[in-house]
Amino acid sequence: MQQRNTPPWPSRARGEPSGEGPRGASCTRFSVSWPLILVLVVAGTVAAFWTLHLVWRLHGVWRIRRAGPRPILATRHRIWHEVHAREASDLRFGPGGEASAPAPPFEFVAELLSGSHPCVSVRDAKQRLWRMKWGAEAKPETFCVRFAAACGYFAEVTHYVTSGRIDGVTTLTRARASVGEDGTFSDARFELEDRAVRTLFDEHSWAWNDNPFVGTKQLDGLKIVVMLLSNWDNKDRRDVSRGSNTAIFEHRISPFAYEARYLIIDWGGAMGKWGATVISRDRWDVEGFEAQTPGFVAGVHDDVIDFGYQGQRTAEIARGIPVDHVRWFYKRARPITEPALREGLLASGATEDEATRFARALMTRIQALYEAVALSKSQEARQDEGRRTIKTA
Asked: Which residue ranges make up each domain of the chain?
């Protein structure tokens, strides 16, 4: 019998994985822990998010300090003014009224490359300068200035033009897709640029926690307007690195005096779903707007009202608004009717269905303010009754 040579290493059964690769190289198998990888990815994303926000914050502080004090000339400061019931019940034209509407023909001036949407500057037949803008923000901006103005808050003259033509158009970049070769356009937002007004933007704008109206019912009323319209993009002076959505406009009220008016200049993130993140919020979304309406008021306690709203600065906007301030605002918003809202929405580019549903949801939210105030009064009455019962006992 022929004897086999026995190899100097242990034998292995058929099918057993080899621990050696070619030419005797050792191969080690690593098991992949997907939960660990997921945790690392999430942690990295969160870290990057907060690092980016920290960089923005520090850069904003640097820009504000570099800009120095606001060059304000005004001796009078206002964020709100009284509005007659007739103005509050007509939202077709917004600030400036019917006479402020853009008058064709429009003459091309320049393309504006700042901002996130295509924009050009034009001059109309009355020699007024307008900023034309296209995109998802055109409709909400047009309607929101109408609603804010109807509540007594300052807003820019803004109109929605369904179609028209711009003469003298030259080479365009971002706006090329919005303007035809013959200058025709559709669905544009026109915003008046009044050269007689001194404007303070970005570093010289204002913040929700730093303005002459902190703690007043007028400022809290503006917060309620923001929430009624689901405007999640409420960046202010502190967010100057990303662009402040607040501004101060100085109007001459006499040959020797100016008045500073504090306003929101960008309502493009409104009329959809509020939310704290990009995946939870939306703009000009009637279904999302309706879905969140039942949660508009989150609770009533200790003479304050909390709201379900979420945005860029949720705590400063939606928490702890005194009942008295909500009551004050409700009296100013009460003259606004559902037909007036529908007309304002239609003038802002809404379809008939959108106008009907948005208007109905907005009226429901306004009614929720009244019910919250009434609930607070009922709670106060029960507390008084309880105190009297204790004294009697």
From this structure: 85-197, 199-385
